[in-house]
Amino acid sequence: MTADPTPIEASFTGRLGNFALDMALSAPGHGVTALFGPSGCGKTTFLRCVAGLTRLPGRLSVGGEVWQDGRTFRATHRRPLGYVFQEASLFAHLSVRGNLDYGRRRVARGGVREAIAFDDVVEWLGIAHLLERAVTHLSGGERQRVAIARALLGQPRLLLMDEPLAALDRDSRQDILPYLERLHDALSIPVLYVSHDLAEVERLADHLVLVEAGRVRAAGPLGQLLADPALPLAGLPDAAAVLEAEVVGHEPEYGLVRLRHAAGDLLVPGGRWPVGRRQRLKVLAADVSLGRRPPVDTSILNTLPGRVVGHRESPGHQVTVFLDLPGGADRLLARVSLKSWQALGLAEGETVYARIKAAALDRA
Ligand SMILES: Nc1ncnc2c1ncn2[C@@H]1O[C@H](COP(=O)(O)OP(=O)(O)OP(=O)(O)O)[C@@H](O)[C@H]1O
């Protein structure tokens, strides 16, 4: 694997037919940066510009190396990147291994030969048992895993993924997500990930670029943008917050893991996480309710105090409440009915107790 971080600086401005693109972003050299926005806002166009498949005026540097500017335009095959599309475009006449070998032979200039090892890729994506199979005999999810493996074996310094789950049915999507999470933990190259599915982004991304009508509306760490009252994300049905906590123990008899957050302990279903590991958790706004006092006599295990920093009415006579948690770093969202909100009579600056259903916490 490459040791050097590969930050990405990209800006493109221009027109395609009636569509005007004017986007600039910086992405860190590791982790997943999601480009999120509605259909037709320009996410794919931007990714194609990064790949050199669409040529618009702009500037692109990857790890300090200029791939495009006013004078330079590196052709796609000279950019060490992997590109995974919505539909895996595998060679139907080759086996899975044949497809992967093709990827291995296509190490782009600038890619480091065997920096990403064949055996690692096969293991991350769980495809060892498929190697001799014809690609025509794979499920949609398996095809995508092979396509990702093939892209990685080209030893990219940057991985581009354009809605890799969009063509899959719901079950296949659920099956493939753990592999993408594993990849996220294992890969040291940056990933630009296009999606219009907020739940997917919440689960996989570290950084978020919110795209609207060919422009960047906001960009930053995922947790910050998800819980920003000025942005539309917190109003969406899937709105969620992400928290960082440390694994401090296990309660195997209940199938629970204990995590420590600056705001308090949380018990989460699961069992594999080692003590000491910092774990990201996703908490859906819809799974958080509020009370003025710490709860007694309730089946809810997890309660954190928070300070109300804002609220916003949401569709369906609901209110999304923004809470700053003690410790300063994290913010929680609660979705309560308008009636409860009015009954609580909360004002900004007041402390409330957020009750989180244990089942709502998941690996984000
Ligand atoms: N070559 C082209 N010529 C003219 N218009 C184009 C061209 N390529 C893309 N567009 C237009 O640019 C706009 C942005 O398209 P793009 O595919 O980048 O959006 P997107 O955000 O990726 O959408 P989706 O999520 O549906 O894939 C669309 O209106 C599209 O029709």
What does this structure look like?
This protein has helices at 43-51, 96-105, 118-124, 140-153, 170-186, 198-204, 222-226, 338-344; strands spanning 8-16, 19-27, 32-36, 58-62, 65-68, 81-84, 158-162, 191-195, 207-212, 215-221, 240-251, 256-261, 264-269, 278-284, 288-291, 302-314, 318-324, 331-337, 351-356, 362-363. With 364 residues, the protein is an alpha+beta fold. It folds into two domains: 8-226, Rossmann fold; 240-245 and 278-363, RNA polymerase II/Efflux pump adaptor protein, barrel-sandwich hybrid domain (OB fold (Dihydrolipoamide Acetyltransferase, E2P)), CATH 2.40.50.100. The strands form four sheets. It has a six-stranded mixed sheet with strand order 6-7-8-3-9-10, with helices on both faces. It has a five-stranded antiparallel sheet with strand order 13-12-11-14-20. Residues 16-17, 19, 37, 39-45, 196 line the site of adenosine-5'-triphosphate (ATP).
